[in-house]
Structures are given as C-alpha cells and as structure tokens.
Design brief:
By secondary structure, the chain is of the alpha+beta class. The chain has helices spanning 5-31, 68-74, 113-119, 211-218, 247-268, 272-279, and strands at 53-54, 57-59, 79-86, 94-103, 123-132, 141-147, 154-161, 168-173, 179-187, 190-203, 206-208, 227-238. A hairpin with a 6-residue loop joins strand 7 and strand 8 (168-173). The longest helix has 27 residues, at 5-31.
Length: 289
Amino acid sequence: MRLEASVYRAYGVGLGMLVVGALGFRAAVAQLNLFLMKESVPLREGFDTIPTKIGHWSRVGKDARHADALIEELGTKQYLDRTYALDGDPKRGVIMLHIAYYTGTIDAVPHIPERCWAVHGLEMTREATTSAVQLNMTDWQALEGSANLATGLPYRTAIVRDPFTAELERVTMPLEDLAMRVLEFQDPANPRIRQVGGYFFLANGRTTASALGVRGIAFDLTNRYAYYCKIQLTMSGVVDGADGTMVPKFEEETSAFLGDLLPHVMKRLPDWPVWEQKSLGQPSSTQTP
C-alpha cells in the first residue's frame, strides 16, 4: 500500500524536529556546563587498609568476603564488612562495620536496613530516627582558601596517624555535621533479642543520613564527577524486658567509634576539593599536618 505524499512530509517534519530538539538539548547542556553522565572517581586506598584497631575497638576474625551473587546484589566490589570488639573482647561489646563505595553508576541507592532486615524476618520495634553523632572535633581545622562549590561552606580537616609509620596527615572531612539514621529491630521468636543499626552516606565531600538526600547530592548536575559511600554500624544484644531498648547504648558507643573511624575513611575516599578543582581545570593544592 502506497502512502500519500503528505504522510511522508509529516514523517520527515517530525523526524527533523526530533533531531533538532536532541541537538538543541545537547547544546544547551554544554552551554550551561551541566553533566548528565557522571565520571567515576577512584578510591585513594582500599577499605581493607583501614586500621584493625579503632580507638578502644579491635578487629576480631577476618573481613568478610562475599560470593559473586551477593556482590552483584550489593552493587559494588569496593566494600568492607568487618567486626570490631571492645578491647578485642567480644564479651564486652561488638560493632559490625559495613562500608560500600559507588561511583560511575550513580543511579540507585544501596540497600538500607528498613527494607533488608524486615525481609529477613525481623520486626521493627520503633520508628527510625535521625540522631546527631557527637564527634570529638578538637583538632579539626578550616581548610583555608577552599570552599565547597555546591554549598559555599568551608572545608574542614582532621589529623590521621598512620598505624604503621606513625606519620601524621591532614585529610578533608565532611562539610556538614554528622547525623545517622538509627533503627531497632527484634526477633519475633524472642522479643528481648534486639538488633540496632545506624547508617549515613558520604557523597561528594558532604554527608547525609537520608537515602533520598544522597541522590540529590550525587546527582547535582553541576558536578562532573560523583561518588557516594554508605557506612553502616550494627550492634546486637539482649534487653531486660519487652519495653527495653538498646538505642541509647548504641548511640553512645558508635559516636566514640565513629570519631576515630571517620578520618581513616575520609583518607581513603576521594579528596573532594581536589576533584572540584580538577573539574574547573585548576591545579590542586596539597595538605600538610
């Protein structure tokens, strides 16, 4: 069946409009210096180099190594699952640390306990809350002459001591004050057994406790590069009664733990001021203790 010439003309006009629109959109994006596709940013060091002793907590056992199927579900091969015990004695208390790093494929947020733990049969005992983490920031300093491009806030630095060489290094810390999403679950078969988790995200030099917030930071169209990192801490234990809770103990012990851990994590994550300067075509500066 032959179509009338007017049909071919309409098809040609429509196709032309699509081509012109696509070219115009690309030109507008380039003119506005926007980045729809983010370039990946490598870690400076693997997470397995994080010290096995963090403050009063020491690693027990070996770091977990997951099967390929679980790594595929996790969405990254750059992770750390490690258990720390207070003074190296699990009877005194245990913190399970999970870190996962994402870059180059910033299109989804990793699993969060609200969904994962419920799938495995645990029941939430209280609504999730966002709690401020009380860090010891006595040695933190402002990084002079450097401000975050997205917020205008000045960067801060903290000192990290290498556990092997004892050398000191200043590393860039997250911009905002740290907060953690905290939730508690129980085993329905034994309601006194509780599992408390807290998590937050580090993304493009910033921090957020929100799974939606991390997407807003990582998907900032003005950033050429992007990454985010999820940090989750978990504690388990037994409470005195059905109305008991482990949350206050969890918040107290993890705040001290994170105060010692966070500088070591930031040392391994990309130094975001350097990457911002790179995106602007400017030379990067170095930091000294």
